[in-house]
Amino acid sequence: MTTFLSKVTTGGLLLFGSALIASAQKDPKDLYLDKCSACHGPDGAGNTAKGKKLKIKGAKETTAKMSAADMIKVVQNGKGTDMDAYGKEFNADQIKGLVEYYRSLAK
Ligand code: HEC
Q1: Residue 23's pLDDT is what?
Q2: pLDDT at residue 3, rounded to an integer
Q3: 53: Cβ below 6 Å to ligand 1?
Q4: pLDDT computed for residue 33 by the predictor
Q5: Using one digit for the tens of pLDDT, what is the confidence trace for 59-69?
Q6: Which of 22, 47, 89, 99 is deepest in the core (most CB within 10 A)?
Q7: Which atom of ligand 1 is nearest to the CA of 95?
Q8: What is the pLDDT at residue 107?
Q9: Which parts of the chain register pLDDT below 70?
Q10: What's the 98 CA to ligand 1 centre distance in angstroms?
């Protein structure tokens, strides 16, 4: 019984650990395509069904107006009713990577 329990616990911890590693290793592009592109579009232009409905501005326009630091704040804390806060889901490095990737789409 104890061995069974400890096996289950170890297995759970291993699974949990590898899930953490997997999400930490996902590169910004994959994260962006996975979590952000439904609204902002794979090309950052916001030309998706959701993006149009929410009147999302394209990366070219927003990158010209907003600094990376401001964007990091938006991604961390959310903005308005439709842009969620991702500060709990992603760590600071991941958010920085996401914003850098989003800004790279403006070019
Ligand atoms: C449900 C749709 C939705 C998803 C998913 C979403 N966003 Fe947004 N995002 C918005 C909306 C709407 C705004 C504009 C908010 C405002 O100005 O009131 C916005 C604003 C932003 C801004 C500020 C520039 C701008 O366009 O106004 C950045 C940067 C941003 N989002 C990045 C991301 C990143 C990175 C992700 C993925 C982790 C993401 N968003 C996921 C809807 C979304």
Answers
A1: 53
A2: 65
A3: no
A4: 97
A5: 999 999 999 99
A6: 99
A7: 35
A8: 85
A9: 1-25
A10: 11
- Taking residue 10's Cβ as centre, other Cβ atoms within 10 Å add up to 10
Single-letter amino acid code for the residue at 45: A
Q: Which two tokens stand for residue 27?
A: 């590169």
Rounded-to-integer distance, Cα 33 and Cα 19, Å: 19
Residues 6+ positions from 40 with CB-CB distance below 8 Å: 32, 46, 48, 51, 56, 59, 102
Q: How far is CA 35 from CA 11, 53, 96, 97, in A?
A: 28, 18, 15, 13
**Rg over CA atoms, the chain:** 18
Q: Say if CB 97 and CB 31 are below 8 A apart.
A: yes
Question: Which residues are within 8 A (CB) of 75 and not within 5 positions of it... i.e. 6 or more apart?
Answer: 85, 86, 87, 90, 95, 98, 99
Enter the tokens of residue 68: 């990376």
Tell the residue nearest (CA) to atom 34 of ligand 1: 36
Rounded to 5°, the CA angle 97-99-100 comes to 65
